[in-house]
Amino acid sequence: xxxxxxxxxxxxxxxADNAIPIDALADARDCDIGDEGFAVARGxxxxxxxxxxxxxxxxxxxxxxxxSEGYVGxxxxxxxxxxxxxxxxxxxxxxxxxxxxxxxxxxxxxxxxTASQLVVRPTIEEEGRYDLVTMPGGHTVAYWRGRLLVLRGxxxxxxxxxxxxxxxxxxxxxxxxSSPTWMAPLDGGVFVGLRDTVVFLAGTNPAEFxxxxxxxxxxxxxxxxxxxRYLPEEMAGRGDVAIWMGDIGFVVGLPDGGVVYPQAENLxxxxxxxxxxxxxxxxxxxxxxxx
Length: 291
Fold this sequence. Notes:
Blueprint: E1 31-33, E2 39-41, E3 55-60, E4 63-68, E5 71-75, E6 80-85, E7 91-95, E8 98-103, E9 106-111, E10 114-117, H1 124-130, E11 133-134, E12 140-144, E13 147-152, E14 155-158, E15 166-167, E16 173-175, E17 182-186, E18 189-193, E19 198-202, E20 210-215, E21 218-227, E22 240-246, E23 249-253, E24 259-260, E25 275-280, E26 283-288
Antiparallel strand pairs: 1-2, 3-4, 4-5, 5-6, 7-8, 8-9, 9-10, 11-15, 12-13, 13-14, 14-16, 17-18, 18-19, 19-20, 21-22, 22-23, 23-24, 25-26
């Protein structure tokens, strides 16, 4: 099928139908619009397995991990190797080159086909002084500046520095006005998606976080930390940035807590529903999901 276009502005729904620019579209389905504005049919995919539902997929070290029928496991070409039971939603990260996952019961590290819980191992003196406990579980986990961060309920928890299984329930947390669904840690702080707003926890030491609201409505679970080389030239060269989906398209969070709305001129009314974000080739895609 030949390429159609060009429509260099992509989709524009911020004006009346009779005012859409000649180089823009009102809508587009099952196609990709390239940098020069030409639309081409989107590629097809092959079904790998319909024997079971695979959720919470994650890739690390050349292996694909997922959750199926209540177990975390390794997804192979013809088999699913179970590793550990999973309770509730599962979040993923990497720690020392090995995959880490959290669920409602705790935080676990996978080595080969074995999962071990990251547990507290304080000295007697430390345990008495700080009331340290094993790092609690949650639905999202991330590595940031020598600590593990976990979203649980209405809080973000963090481990002791370089002691990833160790947590102080008295001081290693920040509580929000509603339950966060995603976080995106950057050099200068952590973006957190709440029900109606996005907040930025500015700082490099969690005990000194300065919290401020930086954005509005956002799709639950829809965030990534990506290299800014994937962004337009005017936003490139900033190292890692956060990206999430809002009601006016993709939103970019900068390491200093600044926020950029690259699609705000052209898009409004994006449905606020749970989504997964993924990078495929040189594009960021948002997939609606029921999870």
